[in-house]
Amino acid sequence: MIRKLPDRRAFLAAGAATAGAALMTGASGLIVPARAKGLAPTPTMRGGSNNYIPGAPIVERIGGGGFWMTGTVRRAGDGAPIRGARIQIWAHTTEGHEREERSHGATLTDADGTFRLEMPQIVPAFGQAHGHLAYDSGYGGGEFQTVFLRPLMSSPEDTSLSADFVLEPA
């Protein structure tokens, strides 16, 4: 009878399985639940505050609409939704440039931390179709640190864009 020795791949796989089992069971040998790390805050994006206008009014819609900006706002650490967070939105659209006040508006999050604001179709500016969003602590109650986002659209033909905020207490 010829005995076949395990190759390197089998040896490494067996070692990984043993290490994984040891991590799962801990020192006691009992299975312990995985512990999730806290939800990290969203960092401010480079270029996110470009053409920001402090204190843009809360509006039902920006311009004629047809494009939806959506997202969520949650608290860093536990991920709890933040109700009533004021999110300002602006972009270069079919109706105006992102520098113009008429291209800016703000909305508040619902009880589940979500927001939606209709606006004109976003069009490329400097070769990129993108939106701008802000939670500005100076206008959002001051409980959390200011965050500016500048998400890119995957295509200029998209009719919606979503951006999520995870806010760190001030």
Structural class: alpha/beta
**What portion of the residues fall into strands of 2 or more residues?**
15-25%
User: Could you report the average pLDDT, rounded to the nearest whole number?
Assistant: 85
Overall spatial form: globular
> Could you spell the SSE succession in H and E letters?
HEEEEEEEE
The beta-strand count equals 8
Q: Spans of 5+ residues with little confidence (pLDDT < 50)?
A: 19-36
**Termini gap:** 72 Å
DSSP summary: helix tally: 1
Give the biggest beta sheet: 4 strands, mixed
DSSP helix fraction? 10-25%
**Rg to the nearest angstrom?**
23 Å
Account of the 3D structure:
The chain has 170 residues and is of the alpha/beta class. The chain has one helix at 8-25; strands spanning 67-75, 86-91, 104-108, 114-119, 131-135, 147-149, 160-162, 165-167. Strands 1, 4, 7 and 8 form a four-stranded mixed β-sheet that branches. The N and C termini lie far apart (72 Å). Residues 19-36 have low confidence and may be disordered.
Helix/strand layout:
Layout: H1 8-25, E1 67-75, E2 86-91, E3 104-108, E4 114-119, E5 131-135, E6 147-149, E7 160-162, E8 165-167
Task: Produce a short descriptive summary.
This protein is α/β, with parallel strands linked by helices and 170 residues long. It contains 1 helix and 8 strands. Strands 1, 4, 7 and 8 form a 4-stranded mixed sheet that branches.
